[in-house]
Predict the 3D structure of the following.
Amino acid sequence: MSCRDIIEFLMDYENRELPIAQRLLFEIHLRLCPQCRDYLDSYRKTVRLGQAAAAEDEPTMPEDLVRAILASREGIVPLPRS
Amino acid sequence: MLALDHREVKMARMTTFAPTLAPDEVRFVAELQEGRAEAFEHLVRGYGGRMLAVARRLLHHEEDAQDAVQEAFVNAFRSIGTFDGRSQIGTWLHRIVVNAALMKLRRKARKPERSIEELLPTWLPDGHREAPGPAWAESGESMLARRETRELVRQSIEQLPETYRTVLVLRDIEELDTEETARLLEVTSAVVKTRLHRARQALRTLLDPHFGGAS
């Protein structure tokens, strides 16, 4: 298994979707290849950073937007209740 | 026999059918379905901020994000009668605004953007990565503690080509599953998985100059 294979199948490895034999080969390569271990570490951190970056403070709705939305309700015919 | 009016029957049915709804939420939904103006205002002010955050993540421009939120609320007002309480109101609105934002994306003319290939690892003939660079020594927690990190990551996500950014946002940030994402984007699950992996690799490339070797 090459470094290129490792990176190509990294997500499948993380999701535990690799067949057992392939997973074993994957883990052997990781033990022997510090560059791939570093890449896996940075990939995991990237996923976490992406998720956390979105956990921002909830923005305040601009008041004119609130009013526009409430005004737009005027002409709406609701669908019949189920 | 105790006579129940229509509202009480609806509330009772909703509580039984949807134990996820708290009693006050059941009452709130009933008021919305009765068309009470103050309930709608509470809905917009209570959930609008979160919906705007979602729309901003999917759409580049503030005007487009606000349009999508307005469209989402119009859809919510129209279909409140069909809300059956199987999910929380927030979850229901989240789905509506994601749909509205994606519809907006589809209607917009696509601008030329950078190729994802520029942001993926490159390879030597022997299968090793070209220019691997130093490891990211700093811990994730330490990185996240800094406000500038979160801003850097947000800006980097913005730089991703739209096709890939959309999948990354839907899967990793909005936490939709692969099948739901595929359905919304009208592609296969395999395509979603490929795009997500490439988006993550590309994001890593954009962040690497800032974290590679840092401790």
